[in-house]
């Protein structure tokens, strides 16, 4: 204080207790130090950006993770450093950053691809928090990122595997489907959808009763239960009626188990064998029709291993009769060839011709029947390469040989008969011992 003349009168001192403020400042400094340590020692990327996507801060872990120093990042747009402009999925991340500034609430949790300084692509799972000023304007984006690369790669690999499996199942030439324990479809491939004349997604959640007649649905459901009860795969034939006829399927059904070994579904793989069934039926009918023709033909028909002493592999009844046997069974698996030739040179001639030409047409030969009677025969032979044997047609021409006056007139029908039933066609196709096939001349 001063007197009017300007001299000092004295001083007044004012004191205020600021202990609380100092303690608060010290506590704040300690807390900031703790937060700084937490940020810098965190195993997550901590990033702060302005609304334009320019980095304001990145912690030490983030610098090490991406390979950039703080100086290389601060002040630069993250789309120039740690965020690729275009993701490998094709997504435009520049547009994503622009959208974030407009709708930050849509991106609170987000996954996207990032890029390291060395060019490596990594997947990050980001937790983003927008920071607003007192007027509600976006002033900063605080982001916490964790490495999700392994999980994302596993997820992408799984998606690829599932897509591959789906493609295989949808292009399989079989109806493949899965039903839960209540009989509801949980999976159906394209083949089954075509069978039901619907789209695959229209099958899911439905049962056989919604696609098939009740009686047939009951049968299919019973077959599912058989597989569940068996606890293993079963193979059955199933038939589905259609307007243009029934379809026959060979079906393999088996239960599916969870990790604890509990059954949770039934899988079925059904292959349409309708064409095969029709072919087998037609073949069976053909066998029945032509077995009689084969057995009752007036021409001897046979098959033998000609070079192996004439082992007979098959013969019809007429062949046996020409050679003096009561039935064809007396010939099968027997070697009589050397006994039949009156002139052994004839057999050697036939063997030579077969070796050179592969066939011998209309060769007249004198044969000795098993009962000793001499007969004349017209024989045609052809090597069956596929069956590694020789097929032959044998005609008794004894009457013609005994009536030389009628020979020219009778020889032609015999020759024509051989051409029609032997030479290149019937000889190679006529029979085997069990009569497995027959391809007649059209």
From TrEMBL:
PAC domain location: 1-30, 103-160
Domain (PAS) ranges: 31-85, 161-231
NCBIfam families assigned: sensory_box (TIGR00229)
PANTHER family: BIOFILM ARCHITECTURE MAINTENANCE PROTEIN MBAA, DIGUANYLATE CYCLASE DGCP
Name listed for the protein in its UniProt record: PAS domain S-box protein
Organism: Phormidesmis priestleyi ULC007
């Amino acid at each position: 204080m001063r007197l009017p003349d300007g001299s000092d009168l004295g001083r007044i001192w004012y004191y205020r207790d600021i202990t609380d403020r100092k303690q608060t400042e010290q506590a704040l400094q300690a807390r900031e130090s703790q937060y700084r340590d937490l940020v810098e020692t965190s195993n997550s990327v901590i990033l702060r950006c302005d609304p334009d996507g320019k980095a304001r801060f990145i912690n030490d872990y983030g610098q090490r993770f991406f390979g950039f120093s703080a100086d290389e990042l601060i002040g630069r747009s993250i789309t120039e450093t740690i965020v690729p402009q275009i993701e490998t999925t094709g997504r435009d991340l520049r547009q994503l950053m622009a959208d974030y500034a407009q709708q930050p609430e849509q991106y609170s949790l987000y996954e996207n691809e990032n890029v390291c300084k060395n060019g490596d692509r990594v997947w990050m799972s980001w937790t983003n928090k927008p920071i607003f000023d007192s007027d509600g304007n976006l002033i900063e984006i605080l982001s916490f990122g964790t490495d999700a690369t392994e999980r994302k790669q596993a997820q992408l690999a799984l998606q690829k595997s599932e897509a591959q499996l789906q493609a295989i199942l949808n292009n399989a030439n079989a109806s493949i489907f899965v039903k839960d324990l209540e009989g509801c479809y949980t999976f159906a491939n394209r083949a089954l959808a075509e069978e039901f004349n619907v789209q695959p997604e229209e099958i899911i959640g439905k049962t056989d009763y919604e696609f098939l007649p009740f009686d047939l649905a009951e049968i299919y459901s019973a077959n599912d239960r058989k597989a569940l009860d068996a606890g293993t795969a079963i193979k059955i034939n199933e038939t589905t009626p259609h307007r243009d006829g029934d379809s026959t399927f060979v079906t393999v059904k088996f239960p599916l188990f969870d990790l604890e070994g509990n059954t949770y579904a039934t899988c079925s793989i059904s292959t349409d064998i309708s064409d095969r069934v029709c072919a087998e039926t037609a073949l069976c009918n053909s066998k029945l029709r032509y077995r009689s023709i084969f057995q009752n033909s007036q021409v001897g028909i046979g098959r033998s291993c000609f070079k192996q002493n004439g082992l007979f592999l098959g013969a019809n009844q007429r062949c046996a009769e020409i050679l003096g046997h009561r039935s064809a069974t007396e010939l099968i698996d027997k070697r009589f060839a050397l006994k039949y030739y009156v002139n052994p040179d004839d057999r050697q001639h036939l063997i030579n011709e077969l070796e050179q030409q592969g066939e011998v047409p209309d060769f007249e030969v004198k044969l000795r029947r098993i009962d000793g009677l001499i007969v004349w025969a017209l024989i045609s032979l052809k090597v069956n390469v596929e069956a590694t044997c020789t097929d032959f047609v044998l005609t008794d021409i004894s009457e013609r040989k005994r009536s030389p006056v009628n020979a020219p007139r009778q020889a032609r029908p015999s020759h024509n008969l051989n051409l029609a039933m032997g030479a290149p066609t019937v000889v190679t196709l006529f029979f085997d011992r069990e009569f497995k096939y027959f391809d007649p001349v059209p």
